[in-house]
Amino acid sequence: MSAENCDAPLSVSLRNVLNSIQCIRDRVRDGESNESDGAFNLSNFWDTLNQAVKAVSQEATKLSLAFSRPPLPSVQDGEKLSESILKSVLTLSAVYYWLPKSQGVTLRRQVRDATVEVLEGVLQLLEVILSSPLHSLTQEQLTSTGGVWSACDQFPQLPKENKEALLVVLSSQTGVVKDAVEEMEQALSEVQDPFNDVLDDDPDEGNPRGNQDMYWSEKDRQVIGPCQGLTKAAAACLRKLTAAVKANGDSAVPQNVAQLDDLADISREISPSVDDLALCLYPPMDYSGVENNVSKLAALLKKFLEIIR
């Protein structure tokens, strides 16, 4: 912290809080839930979690305001602010740990990621306060405070049970695969040089764009057709699964929750597999890579359909 921003006791207090929250963040990111033999009330969990998130947002705002202009907080007030932000973060992490895996690994992963984002936002705010001059509210501090608010504001939009969490995963994967299909269709519609806007001319060449390795040959285009069909099949599988989950998905019993997690796991593999195949199609085409990635994607879709069945 700069000399004009904070005296040593305040600096030590904030630095201690920052170190503590870093440890909490790491435990949340890597730790396991506290499984309980008793009944778990999902509705109560969400009510308590949202209250905890709201408290973190409020304490972060108080902290930011206290260090946005002179005079500095007294040592005693600074310690109270530090204790309050740390207490709110501890409460948030404790409530997160309530959520057992039996409610769905997919759901828990999304709640974990959102919780970590809040903690990282608070850490960034503390770092900014520790390094910024006091005499004005810097843009960086405004941005960091807004980052905490934004991370907290996403909690009401989080999926509330594992079926909804799976639909979030499917929506994301479907979007990525759809983009890959559309990019391939657009490239195929170009008569000669589909990558003119992304591949630069070689300034050392006397004939710019003369390297045919930057173009698709007729043989290449014959290979692309079936690959395009396979990527469309991947997109269709994701759409059909989404419709099936919306109509028949159930998070009421553990067996069904586990099945939803299996579907989420296999769904996450599809878009990377489609991307790997698409990359091999760029000129100069990697025929060996295409063959390998076509086999992988076809096997993945077969496994995907077996799990759905």
TrEMBL record:
Protein name: Cyclin-D1-binding protein 1
InterPro entries: GCIP-like, GCIP-like_N, GCIP_C
PANTHER family: CYCLIN D1-BINDING PROTEIN 1, CYCLIN-D1-BINDING PROTEIN 1
Keywords of this entry: Cell cycle, Cytoplasm, Nucleus
All copies of domain Cyclin-D1-binding protein 1-like C-terminal, residue ranges: 199-306
Family designation: Belongs to the CCNDBP1 family.
Species of the source: Goodea atripinnis
Predominant localisation class: cytoplasm
Gene symbol of the encoding locus: CCNDBP1
Subcellular location per the Swiss-Prot or TrEMBL entry: Cytoplasm; Nucleus
Domain Cyclin-D1-binding protein 1-like N-terminal as annotated: residue spans: 49-189
